[in-house]
Amino acid sequence: MTRSINVVVPTGALGSGVSEMLLRSAFKSGRVDVIACDAGSTDSGPAYLASGVCKYSRAAVKQDLEILMRARAEYAVPLLIGSCGTSGSDQAVDWTRDIALEIAAEHGMQLRLALLYSEQSPSFLSRCVQQDRITPLAPMTSVDIEAIGSCEHIVALMGPEPYVAALNAGADIVLGGRSTDAGVLAAFPLLHGIEAGPAWHAGKTAECGALCTVDAREGGVLLRVDSMGFDVEPLSQSNRCTPETVSAHLLYENADALRLMEPGGLVDVTAATYTALDDRRVRVEGSRFVPGPYTMKLEGAAANGFQTLMLVGIQDPEVLSALPRFLSQMHELMVDRVCKTLNVERDSFHLSLRPYGWNAVSGFDHRERPAPVEIGLLFIATADSQERATQIAKICNPVLFHMPLDLKGPLPSYAFPFSPAEVERGAVYEFKLNHVVKVDGPLDLVRTVFTNTGECA
Q1: The dihedral of CA 247, 251, 254, 257: what is its sign?
Q2: Which of 51, 80, 126, 230 has the fewest other C-beta atoms within 10 Å?
Q3: Considering the entire predicted model, what is its pTM?
C-alpha cells in the first residue's frame, strides 16, 4: 500500500480545548481522512470512574464536540472519540451521547452514532477469577473477588477493533467507552490496511495531541500513516515537532522507552528511526507490532470513607525551623484527643497533616534544607461517615489553631483562611482494580449500540 491515512488529532482530551481555526486549517492544507481524539484518563484519580461523572464541565465538552461535529459534517469524515466522559463508563458514554444528540438537533445533522460500552459486571468478573483469567498489575499483587464486588464501576480498556467494526457498519461518529488512547487513533489506519506497527506507534505518539511537540499547549497534530511509517506535524504553523519530542512520547505513562503493551500484542520501537523532514515535521519508520495473547486492562473504583479538611497558614519562624518535631507532636496530640473524646480506637479513623511549602508533594524529610518562609498546613480527617469526619475535625480544631512548638509556651494563633474552618470534601475514592483479563477476542467485552439522530429526535 502506498497511500497514507491522514488522521487529525485536534486535542489531547475532549473538553480541554479545541481550536476551530487550527482544525479547519488542517482540512484546507490537504486531505484528512478521520478526526480522532481521546476524552478520558485515570490521571486525576479514581473519583471520576467511581462516580461516573466527567472531570470537565458539560459546557467545555459541548464546545469542543460541537467544533468537531461541525467539521465532520462539512468535510464528510468519521469522528472517533475514546474514553468518553473521563472514565469511559457506560454512564459517561451516555452523557456524551446526549451532548452529541443535542448538538445534532441544534444543527440539523442526520448521522449514525455508534456507542461502544465496555463496563463489566462484578458477577462476570468473579467468574473470570474462578477461570484464572485475571492477573494483577503493579502495584496490585493479588486478585480479590471481594474488591471486585465493592467497585461502583469497572471498565475494560478496548483496543481499536470495536472502532473498526463500528466504522464498517456505517458509523459517522463513534463514541467509545474506556479505550487505550493509542487504539482510538490507530483504528482508522488499521481499517484501511496499514501495518500494525506504524499505526499503533503513530497512535501512541499523538494520543495527547500536541504533547509530542515543542509547545504542548498549542493545538493538536496531524498524522500521515502508511505501512512503512508515519509523519507527524503540529497543526499550528508556529509549533514544531522534533525527533526528540516525538521519540520521547513513548515514555509518557510508560516505563519502557522502546516497548508498549497494548491489547493483543506489543509495540516494539527498538529499530525505529526518527528523522526531521524539516523544522516542523518528523518521519518515523521501523516500528513493529508483535502479536500476543489478547488481554484487556480492568479499572475499577469505589468509595472508601469520607473526608473533612481544614487549612491553616503558618509563618512562625520557630515552628518552621523544627517542622518534623512540630508535625509529629501535633499529629500525636490530635489522635490522642480524638480517641479520648469519642472513646474510639486509633484504627477507626485516619488523620493526615500535609505541609504545603515544605514536603506535602514529595513526602520526603527535608530537614537538611533551609526552613521555609511559610507553609500551608492541610489537615485531613478520614472516617466512615461525613458526620464523623467533621466531628473529628472539630475536635482537632483547637490543636491545629493554637498548638505551640513548646507545649508549655504561650498559645499562638495560626491563620485560618475560611470560616467555618471545616470543609466537607465528601466521599473518598480509591482504585480497587488494576488488572488484566484474558479474552478470546477483541469484541468479547464490548457492546455496540447504533443510534440514528433522526430516530432520537
Answers
A1: positive
A2: 126
A3: 0.92
